[in-house]
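Example 3.
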Amino acid sequence: GAGVSQSPSNKVTEKGKDVELRCDPISGHTALYWYRQSLGQGLEFLIYFQGNSAPDKSGLPSDRFSAERTGGSVSTLTIQRTQQEDSAVYLCASSQGVGQPQHFGDGTRLSIL
Amino acid sequence: QQQVKQSPQSLIVQKGGISIINCAYENTAFDYFPWYQQFPGKGPALLIAIRPDVSEKKEGRFTISFNKSAKQFSLHIMDSQPGDSATYFCAAKGLDGNEKLTFGTGTRLTIIP
């Protein structure tokens, strides 16, 4: 069975450009989460979706970050006007629902030049 | 504010020995405590998890010990093997509806022959 799939696996872009990261959750999982992993900050929560709604966006670092989920499945995380401090591994996780274990993908490694 | 403190930062154990990683939390609203294992270039994989209504949970060679009054929990890996060499993260989550996982800073475990 397929796990959480993230694309691209690596992304290198210039400062100031916009980037879009994609997450395909495990089939049938209704909840989807975005986290960021960086050397300085460890693993940080960004946003959580239940279905297409985002009850908790408290971890988004600034208004340059946004995320959406359509059809209760695929999610995209968009970072506008990227900065060097946005360089990190962006991890997506999914679960069967509220209170259920979260299962992670392998992440997108984002490098801002 | 670091709500989950993890130690040690790195650990070297001989093959066949017991690896012990400790975590402490501050937020008494936490009620779910998972451990994740992460290999280089991969996402965190759920290893074992516990809720505060039990003091210990064992799955194969992996055991979580939980001390609610001290607000501490630990991971024990019995008969440690070279394949266990990875980074381990403890995490904590609040009551259902609060889906954000708060992670410890990670422990890099190395098992030597």
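Residues 2 and 12 of chain B are 25 Å apart (CA to CA). The longest strand of chain B covers residues 19-25.
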